[in-house]
Design goal:
By secondary structure, the chain is mostly beta strands. Helix content is 7%, strand content 52%. It is built from two helices and eleven strands, in the order αββββββαβββββ. An eight-stranded antiparallel beta barrel has the order 1-4-5-7-8-9-10-11. The N terminus is likely disordered.
């Protein structure tokens, strides 16, 4: 398939950049497959300088809106429920939900909305967008990889799969509890499958 240099901020535009154009159509909407729980939103952070703590968020949703006429207007939007944090320890999770960290009573959602995409290699790109967490919005950039786009081999449904990695500083979002013993740099890990609507 012919590759194109179209730049947009959606998973489908990544697909076009990498030559997978068969499922892209005007004004298409893809939705993260929450019914099948085909997603993962996790994080890693230094614990007291001795180990790496791993956690995840169990509830998220999102859409990928593709504008064929104006790809630059396309957009990926993800919402994570902060209260769904899971580090495999109930006591720690309760503390993470408190005002010391995520303050989920006041700030229920963590959101990411893309604003820019730049191709960096075969099936790879940098996606910039606005991350809002604990009432603070910051621009971040994620390293993204197109895993696959095509018909699901079982359901035959048009499906796109995407992976993203990045790093943020929690202090940028007003979280300083336990520093420096608890690390400031957080590694983000996002893997999703999205179904065409």
């Amino acid at each position: 398939m012919k590759k194109t240099s179209l730049v947009s901020a959606t998973l489908l535009s990544i697909a076009m950049l990498f030559g997978f154009t068969s499922l892209a159509s005007a004004n298409s909407t893809y939705v993260i497959d929450t019914a099948g729980v085909h997603y993962y939103a996790g994080f890693q952070i230094s614990h007291l300088g001795f180990s790496t703590m791993h956690g995840r968020f169990d509830t998220l949703s999102g859409t990928i809106k593709y504008d064929d006429a104006e790809p630059i207007n396309s957009q990926v939007s993800i919402t994570i429920k902060a209260s769904s944090i899971n580090t495999n320890m109930a006591k720690r999770d309760a503390h993470l939900k408190s005002p010391d960290f995520f303050n989920v009573e006041e700030f229920a959602d963590i959101t990411f909305v893309s604003t820019k995409l730049v191709k960096t290699g075969e099936k790879k790109a940098k996606m910039t967008g606005n991350l809002t967490m604990m009432g603070v919005t910051r621009a971040i950039t994620l390293d993204t990889t197109l895993i696959n786009i095509g018909a699901n081999p079982f359901s035959k449904a048009p499906t796109a799969a995407w992976s993203a990695r990045g790093k943020i500083k929690r202090s940028d979002f007003g979280s300083n509890y336990g520093a420096p013993a608890i690390g400031n740099e957080v590694t983000l890990i996002i893997d999703i499958e999205a179904l065409k609507q």
